[in-house]
Here is the input.
Amino acid sequence: MTEGWQEKSLAEVCEVFADGDWVESKDQSPEGIRLIQTGNVGQGVFKERSEKARYISEATFKRLRCTEIVEGDCLISRLPDPVGRSCILPDTGERMITAVDCTIVRFDAKEVIPEFFNYYSQSRDYLKDVDSETTGTTRNRISRSKLGEVRVPVPPLPEQERIVGILDEVFAGIATAKANAEKNLQNARSLFESHLQSVFTQRGDGWVEKQLGTLASFRNGINYTKESKGESVKIVGVKDFQKSFWVPSEDLDTVTIDGKLSESDLLRQGDILAVRSNGNPELIGRCILAGKIPEKMSHSGFTIRIRLSNGDLLPDYLCHFMKCTSSRKRLTDGGTGTNIKSLNQQTLSALRIPFPPASRQKAIVARLDALSEETQRLESIYQQKLAALDALKKSLLHQAFSGQL
Here is the structure.
């Protein structure tokens, strides 16, 4: 422990350390006293989320004997993610209470500055201590009593103020740098998407437009269960799509199917796979292209295979076309299903494909491949910058609360 610093339990340095109120759906009202929930508690920040705001009436407030919370109180979420995250309550212009899974922390002004703890709650040491006390099989949580036992560093108040001042200034700079990196990352992606879109809308001489059903055949993937017995095969599933252009040749699952695979069940070089159905509607229509197939490989029933039947349309060109926003929108808008949309062979067959002669398609693919490679290079740079900024924050927090700042 740094000289002059103390270490105390969280509950020990508070004037108020209490859970929020148990408010059921039937107790809520369209207006009145605002109910602050765990979703409003970010890591060190308050999330307004006014569009999801919930309220209780004055009469309910009195009936349930609720505890009113005020500007400057700390709220700690006892639920993930992560458990123990904290924020300082701002002035929302409304009277407020909080839910039972939030702990209300009102610090003793002679012990701890709220901003000091708010930074500490983002540190690895604090989150590790909280995590060691969490329980639960399906959803981790920490009890208020265990949260109150978590040890926190308590330097003299002037030292707390000095640390908060430094972190305020540095974190503001990091936030600006992070916002710039995220904007540059988005710009790189938008530039590629804009160019991709323009390729298929600015057509010239020799272009034709045909329905995909006149150029290709389709086949849904194979279905299997853990109990299936028969032939084993490498399988391409929805998880293998990610944002890649190519079918991955490694890290594919091996599954066993009932019976024996037919030749039409196996992937060939040049086949295109599209997500047919999945719990995430944003994945419907996402596609990848099969390059060289090193071993026997098939695809899951949640996907659909597109196999071109002649040389008029190149697989690389079609895959790029299917990845542009307008094509994805046409596919998902034409999907079927009540709860979860799905892509079927009829919708794919009706998709109209504009394309020039094969030689021109090759030139377009080469240009798009080069731009895609450059976009991925820029994305990697910006992702590394974002990771470095997060690492810098963690390092600064560790220094701050070990007396090295």
Q: What stands out?
A: The chain has three domains: 6-155, 157-207+356-405, 208-354. The domain at 157-207+356-405 is CATH 1.10.287 (Helix Hairpins). The two ends are 14 Å apart (CA to CA).
